[in-house]
Design brief:
InterPro entries: GH
Mean pLDDT: 93
Number of domains: 1
CATH superfamily: Glycosidases
Number of strands: 8
CATH class: Alpha Beta
Largest sheet: 8 strands, parallel, barrel
Keywords: Signal
Structural class: alpha/beta
Number of helices: 13
Distance between the termini: 24 Å
Strand content: 5-15%
CATH architecture: Alpha-Beta Barrel
Shape: globular
Strand order of the largest sheet: 1-2-3-4-5-6-7-8
Helix content: 25-40%
Radius of gyration: 18 Å
Length: 325
């Protein structure tokens, strides 16, 4: 998720989009789930019960939060631009028996800092280190965002470099596009979701394993509030462009001051957004069909749910929602 790109467009939003209403207590079973098979190439569940962590610093609390979920989640690990490859080894090793793992090679706001050759080299290093432990590699994030690069050609060349490395090693690939409800959400003529997808190289369109949508209400000004039918229609169009890909939601969350908003969201707003989007599962399954795999991947898991019993924790809400999928 871009912390300076998409939200820069929405700096003028009313504070109501991030309102901090009171939230009542919520409890969750937190019974934990069975340990998973850890063999390379293990099958993935459907739906994916996704959460995202952009930090593995508090490793033991992260593992505890993940392992205590009632159903096995898919944990999306953001490989930060300036963090050494080896820094993720312990967390990946500890998480793998408790979660399916997606590795985001570069977040969208970092991609523009890398050349094609640097993306290829970075991908080779991560795949060499963790190719037998990461279940899905996210090779491009929020690609149709002007902060990601200057043009589709520049952006797509980098994504293709990562794709080729992962596929050479037999890995699964995912790419994520922004869901834009309309022109209030973007700056460049090439950013509309479906139009951008059609510009992508044929090798990606024919070979990507997962195509996902990033959805942030406050990335647009005024804020977007896409319905399940609107999101489903976008996914159906993407399914025609990517005929063999599974389709899902790759990122949701409640943006905050670090993203450019005037104030941080309260627990009530976080719950509202989590319940709104994870709660679309049934409607999206009906609209999109058997290729829809869920996901959602709450971006702020490390901040909002680790430790799981932190003050104003979102963990009980997320556990209930993951269990319901």
């Amino acid at each position: 998720m871009s912390r300076a790109g998409a939200v820069a467009i929405a700096m003028t939003l009313a504070l109501g989009a991030a309102a901090c209403g009171p939230a009542g207590p919520e409890t969750s079973g937190g019974t934990g789930h069975a340990r998973l098979d850890t063999e390379p190439g293990r099958p993935l569940p459907s739906p994916l019960r996704g959460v995202t962590t952009d930090s593995v610093v508090d490793r033991e609390q992260l593992v505890r939060a993940v392992s205590d979920h009632s159903r096995a989640p898919t944990v999306r690990i953001v490989f930060e631009q300036d963090t050494p490859v080896r820094a993720y080894a312990a967390a990946i090793g500890r998480l793998r028996p408790h979660a399916y793992l997606m590795g985001e090679l570069l977040d969208s706001d970092a991609l523009s800092d890398f050349s094609v050759s640097q993306v290829r080299e970075r991908t080779e290093k991560f795949v060499a280190a963790y190719g037998d432990r990461i279940d899905v590699w996210e090779i491009g994030n929020e690609l149709n965002g002007s902060w990601t690069g200057d043009s589709p050609g520049e952006i797509n060349a980098k994504v293709l470099a990562a794709y080729d490395v992962v596929k050479e090693h037999g890995g699964r690939t995912a790419l994520t596009l922004n869901h834009w409800s309309g022109p209030d959400c973007y700056e460049k003529a090439w950013e509309p979701t479906s139009a951008y997808a059609r510009l992508m190289p044929e090798r990606l369109k024919r070979g990507a394993d997962f195509v996902l949508l990033s959805i942030y209400e406050t990335a647009c000004s005024p804020a977007q509030h896409p319905t399940a039918d609107q999101i489903g229609a976008t996914l159906v169009r993407l399914g025609k462009t990517f005929p063999r890909a599974k389709l899902g939601i790759g990122e949701v969350g409640a943006q905050r001051k670090q993203d450019g908003l005037a104030k941080d969201p309260g627990l009530a707003e976080k719950k509202r957004l989590a319940q709104r989007y994870y709660g679309m599962q049934s409607a999206l399954e009906k609209r999109v069909g058997p290729r829809f795999v869920g996901g959602y991947f709450w971006w702020y898991y490390a901040e909002d749910a680790v430790p799981r019993d932190r003050a104003a924790s979102l963990w009980p809400t997320l556990d209930r929602l993951l269990r319901s999928l």
